[in-house]
Amino acid sequence: MLDRPGCPSADLTKYSLRAVPRYTSYPTAPHFHDGIDGAAYAAWLSALDASEPVSLYLHVPYCRQACWYCGCNMKLAARYEPIADYAETLRAEIRLLAQHLPQRMTLSHLAWGGGTPTALSPDDLAETMNLVHALFDVRPQAELAIESDPRTLTHEMITRIGALGFTRASFGIQEFDPQVQAAINRIQPPDMVASAVNGLRGAGVPAMNFDLIYGLPHQSVDTLLSTVETCLDLAPDRFALFGYAHVPWMAKRQRMIPEDALPGLKARQAQASAAAAALRAAGYDQIGMDHFAKPTDPLAQAAREGALHRNFQGYTTDTAKTLLGVGASSIGRTPTGHIQNITETGAWSRAVAGGHLPIARGVALSPEDVLRGHVIEQLMCCGEVDLDGVAEAFSAPNWYGDDLPDLAPLIQDGLLEMEGSKLRLTPIGKPLVRVVAAIFDTYLETGKARHSVAV
Questions:
Q1: Which pLDDT tens digit goes with each residue over 310-324?
Q2: Whole-structure pTM over 0.90, yes or no?
Q3: How far apart are CA 335 and CA 370, in angstroms?
Q4: Same domain as 322, residue 262
Q5: Domain check: are 117 and 253 in the same one?
């Protein structure tokens, strides 16, 4: 076995610059292919264990205002008619999915994402949620989460979200500095966010999530720490601290961002480190590589108990093995494999109208995929893994022998410790967990996908 290092000996910049996936799935989405279609997905759904719960993700690609930094599948809607048509098709897809399930299933977790789900009208949101309750047995303790945009969130929508029983709302704060907000085209003063948060709490939504981004144009350690301080006054239950991924070849809106205003690597690292330290000092537990939660939050509890999971929505307490993705470009998974819906809303709508599951691509999981996916999830969620324990659990002796030479430099440079077959991230290695996880990714060198840097 490899020896433990004495102390870090290398400049870790070389690792921070590595372009690696975020590992919200394994294999990652660039390795999905069009050999998986609606018929294959229908077979996967019909083979589900009816006694196991499922979770549901609903994607709304529409926004009322565009943000230049966004790399999501998003459409700007000046009128409501396209959104109304989309909501109707979304409900049709939910009915179609339910028809392919082995029986009425139990729902343990539901999340609305986008785009901006609150771009829907309150009536369309309610009609869709009522349909979900009609077709699934929603657990009383199920988490019902929705992303919201404070710039366009109305009092009527706030009231309806509370009445529908949502338990968590997420806000993309990103940064409060006016110069940064102007550069990313997301103007939302603190008072606007506070009004939305307090409104939702008053309507009965108990938990709040805030997203922050480092590496934005004109951003500095001081502006980000000021943003953190302002956010702490609102006491959200969770924070997510993401690095801005500048990928203008994929996200054309990002071409509006002045590249000469983007902070360099060392500045990005300083911002990430300072914000993380401030959140920990404020009493939040650090979860995985980029989440922070109050110690009483279920995410923090799951992390302490070794029960944290990771899926297409990031770190989660959701234990369901099946995630049903609904909506254009939505991604889902079953124990058999991953799928992604058609991205273009027109083609997606036509497929649903024709009675077809609107699958564009996917990937079936081999036994080795499942094993390596488990290892990567353990590293991403727990920061450690017992390689021989995995070998025993999956009846796969010597499965990681070829990976040992690639682990050696990371151990020598102080990112990892290895005792026997137990691999553990060090404090300096935790922010670079994506680099470590990539060692176990046998697909990474075979594709042409371009990923964001590790930090």
A1: 999 899 999 999 999
A2: yes
A3: 9
A4: yes
A5: yes
